[in-house]
Amino acid sequence: MVFSMSAFGAYFKLTQGSPGNSSHVALSVPVSTEPVDANVGLAWLTVGSMCLFIAEIFPLHIKGVATGVCVLTNWLMAFLVTKEFSSLMEVLRPYGAFWLASAFCIFSVLFTLFCVPETKGKTLEQITAHFEGR
């Protein structure tokens, strides 16, 4: 996602002064090589993987409520991004909006690498002890 957002930002930066994007046909490379109908199911893959991650990190006594709060927060943030993207493109120009999204992607990768503990091969009790600081 970092690469695609950066590529869109570079594309819009390069085509900024031209009257229309159609004059730069060579820059409009296909972003995805997957069939069109396969992309419909890919959005639900992210929702499913998020729910799997949430189910793994919360203890049993708060798992239901915590999962609900996380899913609600996810959908609220998706609504906020969808609603404010056009005004963000006006303020930052299209290339700035895509580069900002790329920066957030880089930040999330770094956060995951340095702050999210590895839980592979650990029991729920070991994971709970890690988060409780024992």
Automatic annotation (TrEMBL):
The subcellular location is: Membrane
Q: Does the keyword Transmembrane helix apply?
A: yes
Please report the record's description of how this protein sits within the membrane: Multi-pass membrane protein
Keyword line: Membrane, Sugar transport, Transmembrane, Transmembrane helix, Transport
Gene3D superfamilies documented for this protein? MFS general substrate transporter like domains
User: Domain of life of the organism in this record?
Assistant: Eukaryota
Could you identify this protein by its name? Solute carrier 2 (Facilitated glucose transporter) member 8
Gene name per UniProt: SLC2A8
